[in-house]
């Protein structure tokens, strides 16, 4: 199996398109998954605020005419599907991540807002770096669940993991 989690649109597409590089939650949902690859399930609901993420993209220098393209799922992918894989990095409290910025807390919050594609007031309290994002060749229908849940690797088109090496006794 492989860990899986759901995200609302447009954030799932922004993450898989490499715009969003940090995922925040109000809990330690990703604790214990650092260094692991997880499947990304596209939730069926949209994030209720359509303006905040657009503001962040504009502030990052991304023209308004590109926003919808970056936030859209490619042809053949839809809500209710696992659409990509991500490598989960460390999880730190958002405030700690921002205040440890080399240029100070103000610059740290700005950098975190850009990475999360959300304002400080809209982001979660725990921030997890997300790396190595990649789209699957095709979306795979999976029922979403709260938190991190497990899906069969074969169900999302991945080979089973190689068995661990067995030590020979001489």
TrEMBL record:
Superkingdom of origin: Eukaryota
UniProt xrefs under InterPro entries: EOLA1/EOLA2, PUA-like_sf
Name of the protein in its database record: Uncharacterized protein
Source species of the chain: Eutreptiella gymnastica
